[in-house]
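All the exercises in this workshop are built on plain-text protein records. Sequence and backbone structure share a record, each on its own labelled line. The structure tokens are whole numbers drawn from a learned vocabulary of backbone shapes. The record below serves as our worked example for the rest of this section.
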Amino acid sequence: MTQELSVVADIGGTNTRVALCLNGKILEDTIRRYRNAENAGIGPILDDYLGAQQVTPVAVCVDMAGPVHDGVGTLTNLDWKVDAASLRSDTGAARVAVLNDLQAQGFAVAHLGHDSLLPVLTGREPAKDAVRLVVNVGTGLNAVPVYSQGGRTMVPPAEAGHISLLARTTEELRLIDWIAERHGQPGVEDILSGRGLERLYAWVCHDEGDGEPLAAAEIMAGFEAGQLRAQRAARLFVHFLGRYSGDLALITLPFGGIYLVGGVTRHLGPHLRALGFAKAFADKGRFNAYMTQFPVDLVTDDYAALRGCAAHLAELTTT
């Protein structure tokens, strides 16, 4: 291995994946997975990984599920702190970046091939440097625009999952009232996330006066088996996802495409069309036809965040 290599790491809720990269591309045969429960932080993981690879990296980029400010991040579901200064000291790298995991996805989308994308809506052909939008539905919910200009990419941080949940029908009013009684001020994340799917199913049971709450995996199994309450919950989920994505499309005008990421959307991805995503996405009154311009794709690449970290480092080294 040469000294021209960089290292990237993607910290998830359960595992951390680490890889070497060169010229903005990850070297897939170097990807290693570490269990977070077996480690005290990202420092010991990188120490073990770089020792095994016998590499002193020229640059490091770490993405994580949690807020990042001035190079310091705290994980949402793990008692770890990620500090750019500590990473620089521990690894000897001259350049270090710490990103939110959704920012890493944003840096990745311009570099994903067709084999990493499952088309949901066609839209028009993206223009060069057009704005892109990444919508993440997993343990939580968030969305970020991606701006490109002259070979540079900007992915601003956001907390777009916590905007207010609004109703347009009497069914939705019943749902929001039920959520408010149990969880306070309803936000979109309350229904668009892994826990959100569980809440939708629990509400369907309440609304129909029958059934017991289930875990998300059980709901998906019920959906695949044709269980009616699970299908109703999934249909509500996709309806709200389409509306949410459409609202954000009007705010950001992502003619470069909308990219759906996260475990929940990946499970529901093959069913988005059948469950009414397109109709809910375009349901904007006199702007219905306008909405058909935005292509929507489901990201199927499990290493997209690592690719985004690598692409970000490549941009940083050109400055």
